[in-house]
């Protein structure tokens, strides 16, 4: 563990990313304390520019709502949906990849054709269609993001399992009469953890981008204030009120950047042999 | 080669049928009975009309028969009817397709050319400030929401600086013809195409840089250096050509995905393509149009993949031989 940390902190970008993420998480967690009022509530005149009132440092939107409060509650939505949809993608992708890699043959063929299908279909267009048809809600958004995001997980896990399967210790486990399920869960999967963790951290970033894009198009959960929704609502008034789209977008950029940097740092720390060239 | 193409075509056809089937079940998953939805869209929901619709679309038949009818329709390029717009979906899409193709092609070219150039530049100056700059820009582009970049570009280049138009396909009431019209459209194209290409530009930068560095450690490059060839020549003829192989694969995979991003760009820039059509269909919950655009963008992905697969075999003789 200490080894891991010393390798991780050698990557300055990753440490910066971690710092940004800690701030975002803190803001999300403290949102109800910092802004007890609902972010949907009108607090001042509409279109109040930033830095004109101390209580509203980022101004108000077209309906007089506090932009800063919206940002704080939006952080909750982004992190929640990013995290949960990644977990769901892992729950779909890991079993499919593990079964395909472990059993090979027609199981592998069938599962990989299935995976390929979802990889070929244009991701974002499918996500739009799914959320539109099942009506926008936290569940449908998470489901749609997970459905378009799991194929890389399945392919990664399949590759890892395929190479681990021929190792001697796995053959020994087979000969000793362990059940297939035990071998997969106890012997093989724990050894695929590092690359999965790296991939997952990058997937959270992609999921946050996807969620914000859906909300931007009006496919967000109507009960939740999200960054994408804020930008979507500000789109038509961009000429009068730049700050309404600038700040939420900047928040998305920083959060996604932080997660990508952390992902690279994790990659360096967990797979030291594969760490990037040219560094 | 012919056998290869035939095999790939069969595979593409199977995937297309799977997508159509998925579409069919999605329509059935849509809230409400399809006939009622259509009747609602047409603005008349009485019993007789409902029954008429059910018969017309075979909705009173078993599900599998319905699927057959639907598949047969798609084969004849019948993607259903949009009651909102009072037009067949295929026609709506066909009208808008050229604008989207123009936008995505431009975005593809911009991102591929600028991305690989920057990647090559960075790899030639590893560790220097220009490499750091390019790598940082790539990281930022990689994390920027597409639609936000589009909005900021409008704000900066058309509202503040007034350099480029930030709205539409051509100047309304401009009535340009010939070359002047081409120029007008090109001006309108710059902002949407570059913002749409931003993400992939970052991907190509990172990939080209990594790939160039990897190839430059291989033995044949050492041999070339030992022979005393000029570094610039080695860079262009030996390293670049080999480093481009993974980039070509990636380009084929992602060219089609640009259509998805086009929904966002076309929404911001009021670009009259199928992305904008999809956005408008969303607001009206016009499911037939939605699924039609989805189908067409999937078909485009398949087409792009097919083209790259063939190109790849032409470019890389090793694959042709095996």
From TrEMBL, chain A:
| PROSITE patterns linked to this entry | ABC_TM1 (PS50928)
Q: Which family does it belong to?
A: Belongs to the binding-protein-dependent transport system permease family.
- Pfam families registered for this protein in UniProt: BPD_transp_1, OppC_N
- Where in the cell does this protein reside? Cell membrane
Does Cell membrane count among this protein's keywords?
yes
Q: How does it sit in the membrane?
A: Multi-pass membrane protein
A GO cellular component term found in this entry reads:
plasma membrane
Q: ABC transmembrane type-1 domain: which residues?
A: 75-263
Q: What is this protein called?
A: ABC transporter permease
Record's keyword annotation contains Zinc-finger: no
InterPro entries hit by this protein: BP-dependent_transpt_permease (IPR050366), MetI-like (IPR000515), MetI-like_sf (IPR035906), OppC_N (IPR025966)
Q: Upper taxonomic classification of the species?
A: Bacteria, Pseudomonadati, Pseudomonadota, Alphaproteobacteria, Hyphomicrobiales
TM region positions: 12-35, 79-103, 124-150, 196-220, 241-262
Which SUPFAM superfamilies does UniProt cross-reference here?
Answer: MetI-like
Q: Which biological process annotations from GO are given for this protein?
A: peptide transport; protein transport; transmembrane transport
Instruction: Give the UniProt keywords, A-Z.
Output: Cell membrane, Membrane, Peptide transport, Protein transport, Transmembrane, Transmembrane helix, Transport
* Species in which this protein is naturally found: Roseibium aggregatum
TrEMBL record, chain B:
Q: What name goes with this protein?
A: ABC transporter permease
Q: Which organism is it from?
A: Roseibium aggregatum
| A GO cellular-component term linked to this record | plasma membrane
Q: Which GO terms describe its biological process?
A: transmembrane transport
Chief location bin: membrane
Q: Report the membrane topology from the UniProt record.
A: Multi-pass membrane protein
What the entry lists under InterPro entries is as follows: BPD_transp_1_N, MetI-like, MetI-like_sf
PROSITE patterns referenced in this protein's UniProt entry, alphabetically: ABC_TM1 (PS50928)
Q: Which PANTHER family match?
A: ABC TRANSPORTER PERMEASE PROTEIN (PTHR43163:SF9), DIPEPTIDE TRANSPORT SYSTEM PERMEASE PROTEIN DPPB-RELATED (PTHR43163)
Family per UniProt? Belongs to the binding-protein-dependent transport system permease family.
Q: Which stretches make up the ABC transmembrane type-1 domain?
A: 97-312
Q: Name one Pfam family in it.
A: BPD_transp_1_N
Location in the cell: Cell membrane
Q: Which UniProt keywords apply?
A: Cell membrane, Membrane, Transmembrane, Transmembrane helix, Transport
Membrane spanning stretches: 12-30, 97-121, 133-157, 185-204, 243-269, 289-312
Query: Which CDD domains is this protein grouped with?
Result: TM_PBP2 (cd06261)
């Amino acid at each position: 563990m200490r080894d891991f940390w010393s390798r991780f902190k050698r990557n300055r970008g990753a440490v910066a990313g971690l710092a940004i993420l800690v701030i975002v998480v803190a803001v999300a967690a403290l949102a109800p304390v910092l802004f007890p009022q609902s972010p949907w509530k009108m607090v001042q005149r509409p279109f109040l520019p930033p830095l004109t009132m101390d209580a509203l440092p980022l101004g108000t939107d077209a309906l007089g709502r506090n932009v800063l409060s919206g940002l704080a509650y939006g952080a909750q939505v982004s992190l929640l949906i990013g995290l949960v949809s990644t977990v769901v993608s892992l729950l779909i992708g890991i079993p499919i990849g593990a079964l395909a890699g472990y059993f090979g043959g027609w199981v592998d063929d069938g599962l990989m054709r299935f995976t390929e299908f979802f990889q070929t279909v244009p991701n974002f267009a499918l996500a739009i269609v799914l959320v539109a048809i099942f009506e926008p809600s936290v569940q449908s958004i998470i489901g749609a993001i997970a459905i378009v995001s799991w194929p890389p997980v399945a392919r990664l896990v399949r590759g890892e399992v395929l190479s681990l399967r021929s190792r001697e210790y796995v053959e020994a486990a087979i000969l000793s009469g362990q059940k297939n399920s035990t071998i997969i869960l106890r012997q093989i999967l724990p050894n695929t953890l590092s690359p999965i963790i790296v991939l997952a951290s990058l997937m959270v970033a992609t999921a946050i981008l996807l969620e914000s894009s859906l909300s931007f198009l009006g496919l967000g959960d109507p009960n939740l204030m999200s960054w994408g929704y804020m930008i979507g609502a500000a789109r038509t008034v961009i000429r009068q009120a730049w700050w309404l789209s600038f700040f939420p977008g900047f928040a998305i950029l920083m959060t996604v950047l932080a997660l990508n940097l952390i992902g690279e740092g994790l990659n360096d720390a967990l797979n030291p042999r594969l760490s990037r060239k040219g560094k | 080669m012919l056998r290869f193409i035939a095999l790939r075509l069969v595979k593409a056809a199977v995937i297309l049928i799977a997508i159509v089937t998925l579409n069919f079940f999605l329509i059935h998953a849509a809230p409400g009975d399809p006939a009622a939805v259509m009747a609602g869209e047409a603005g008349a929901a009485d019993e007789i009309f409902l029954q008429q619709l059910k018969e017309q679309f075979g909705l009173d038949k078993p599900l599998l028969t319905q699927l057959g009818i639907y598949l047969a329709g798609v084969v004849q390029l019948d993607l259903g009817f949009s009651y909102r717009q009072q037009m067949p979906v295929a026609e709506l899409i066909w009208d808008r397709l050229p604008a989207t193709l123009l936008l995505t092609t431009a975005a593809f070219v911009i991102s591929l050319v600028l991305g690989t150039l920057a990647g090559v530049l960075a790899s030639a100056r590893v560790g220097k400030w220009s490499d750091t700059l390019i790598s940082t820009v790539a990281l930022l582009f990689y994390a920027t929401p597409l639609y936000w970049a589009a909005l900021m570009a409008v704000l900066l280049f058309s509202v503040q600086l007034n350099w480029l138009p930030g709205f539409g396909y051509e100047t309304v009431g401009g009535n340009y013809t010939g070359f002047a019209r081409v120029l007008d459209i090109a001006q309108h194209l710059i902002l949407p195409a570059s913002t749409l290409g931003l993400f992939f530009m970052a991907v190509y930068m990172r990939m080209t840089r990594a790939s160039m560095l990897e190839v430059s450690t291989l033995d044949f490059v050492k041999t070339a250096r030992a022979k005393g060839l000029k570094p610039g020549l080695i860079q262009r003829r030996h390293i670049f050509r080999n480093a481009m192989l993974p980039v070509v694969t990636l380009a084929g995979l992602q060219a089609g995905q640009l259509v998805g991003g086009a929904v966002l760009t076309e929404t911001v820039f009021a670009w009259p393509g199928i992305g904008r059509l999809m956005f408008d269909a969303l607001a009206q919950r016009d499911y037939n149009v939605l699924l039609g655009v989805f189908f067409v963008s999937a078909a485009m992905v398949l087409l792009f993949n097919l083209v790259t697969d063939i190109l790849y075999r032409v470019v890389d003789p090793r694959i042709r031989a095996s």
